[in-house]
Structures are given as C-alpha cells and as structure tokens.
Write a structure and sequence with these properties.
Layout lengths: L1 H8 L2 H4 L28 H26 L14 H9 L5 H11 L3 H14 L4 H26 L3 H4 L15 H20 L9 H20 L3 H26 L3 H38 L4 H34 L25 H9 L1
Helix pairs in contact: 3-7, 3-9, 5-6, 7-9, 7-11, 9-10, 9-11, 10-13, 11-12, 12-13
Length: 369
Amino acid sequence: MLRTVINTFWNEYVWLPPNTTWEDIAPGPDKVVVYTDHRHLLVPIPLALVLIALRYVLEKYWFAPFGKSLGIKNTRPKKAPTNPKLEAAYQASPKIKHKQICALAKQLDMSERQVERWWRLRRSQDKPSTLVKFSENMWRCTFYLYNFSYGLFILWDKEWLWDIDHCYIGYPHQGLTNDVWWYYMISSGFYWSLTMSQFWDVRRKDFWQMFVHHLATIALLSFSWVGNLYRIGTLVLLLHDTADIFLEAAKAAKYANYQRFCDAVFATFTVLWIVTRLGVYPFYIIWSTSVRAPMLLPMFPAYYIFNSLLCLLLALHVVWTWLILQVAYKAIHAGQMEGDIRSSSSELSDVSQLSNHSTPNRLNHKKET
C-alpha cells in the first residue's frame, strides 16, 4: 500500500518532462553530466543543527559582547509577583479580555487594576532583552551577507546568471557542480534552522506568515532539486538575500541606538526590497518561468507546482511591502525609524513602533500609567 502511494506520488508523468524517466536523470558514474540526487535532501537537516549550534556560539561569544561594547544592556523587566492562579490563567491565554479581568479580580479578591498591572508585568517578562534581539539580527545579517557573497561568487561565471534562458536550455540534462551543491545545501539548511528556531526565537506578529514563507522556500528548494531545476533556484536564492542583509543591519543599528546609520540602511533596504522583490522577481524571474520556459521546453505538472510556489512567495512580498511602505511613510514624517519592521508579538504594533507618532494604544498606556 505504502509503495503504491509512493510510486503514485513520484510518478514520472508528474515530475519529469515528456519522454524522460527517473533513470535518465539518476546520478551515476556512467552519466555524461552530474545530476542532482534526491537523497541529498536529507543533508540540510543535520546542517540546520550545525547552523543552530554555530549561531549559539556566535551570539554568546561574539555578538553579545560586541553589543555590550556598543552600550546595549541585557536588562530584564521586573518580574510579576508569584500568583499561581494568575499564572495558570496566563499560560492558558496570554491575551486577556475585560470580562476575564473582572472574573479573576472577583475570584482572587483583587482590584481590576491589580490584575491588569500583574498581567502587564507578566507579559513583559516574556519579552527578550534588547541585547538578545541585537544578537539575533547580527546572526541573520552575517549569514545573509555570507550567503549572498558566496552565491554571487560561484554564479559569476555561470551562463544562466547572465542569460536566464540557460535555466531551460538543455533541461533536464544540466550538469551540477560542487559549488552549486554546497550553495543549495547550506541555503536549505539555513531555512530549516529558521523553521526550527522560530518557535523559541523572538516572537513576532508575522509568525505564521514567516512560517509559511520558510516552508514554501524549503518546498521550492526541494522540488527544484528533485526535478533538476536548481538553476532557477539559485537565482531566486541570490535575489532574496540581497535586501535581507540591509533589513537585519537596520534593526541591529536601531537596537544599538545608531539612529542615523539605521535610517540610511533602512532607506537602502526599502529601495532594494522594492527593486528586487516587486521588480526583478515578478518581471524577470516569474515572467521567465511563466512565459519563456514554455517556449523552450515542454511543460509538465510539477513545473506548475514549482511556479505556483514562486507566486506564493510573491504574494507574501506584496503583503510585506505594504507594511514596509507604511513604516517608511511614518518614518519620513517622524524624522527617524523607530522600533522594528517585524516587532515582537508582545509589543503594541508592527507599524506604529516604527514612527514617532503616538498611537491610541500608546496614549491609553500613558493614561493607565
């Protein structure tokens, strides 16, 4: 039964161009070119664990000391008084409504204000310190910088970097080189590590969007690897790393209170994001996969799956671009960028934190204080 399901799923009609079999693109010493090996898709998982360990070491012994030298403090908020019943209610649901506050106040013989104050203190306990957030951003910035540099270096002499039609010419009999193999494995390992660490990293409001993004990216890398479509995959990877370097650098600069540098980097990021994610990506990459590819090779079902995932990434780009433009607009009026483009879920708002304008939430908080 299981074998039937596997054979049906990996049907050659679905995954390969017409008149092509798995045996035709199976790696082996008798083949003219080196083909991708589907078994290598397991390699990124242990690589992800290595990257998580490397991140831990760098954050603890490099980024955290560097952040402290810049004056970033590792201060923790005041702890809420011990109260088992309130703690149990908080663990059940960190978000609380007014009705729950009233019920807890009556049950514990406390005033509503006391319950609200305890709840605010308890929520602030879960917020990571500025130094922790700085270290996380420095790790991501470092990796994106490395990955982009390595990708650009190995692709510089590849013909498909300069003429995207070569992603399809000769497909699927396109030889794989060791440098591209490592580029794919390390990139896949990084996204696997993000998917794993996302559950204990700084919790952000776009948690599920990022989770979908990571899974879509892993699926894209896996499908393109199995189908030997790695050439277009390398271009997508290179394009996506470009703006991410500046995003993480801007956030790290903000946490270090280098406001002018943060503003300059954020402006560069905004321009690069729009150019790469809403310009080059849809009008060069997706246009190529949707228009040029059918002209150069016969289509097959898996290619439409691959292209649909590319379009899913584009939809996420549009959502994030709207948030970024809101941030940029408020930053221009406020005179500086404040906060984080993707703030933690315990903060008031993803967008309002990036400008100096007071929001109704902030005003209410001031009144409560």
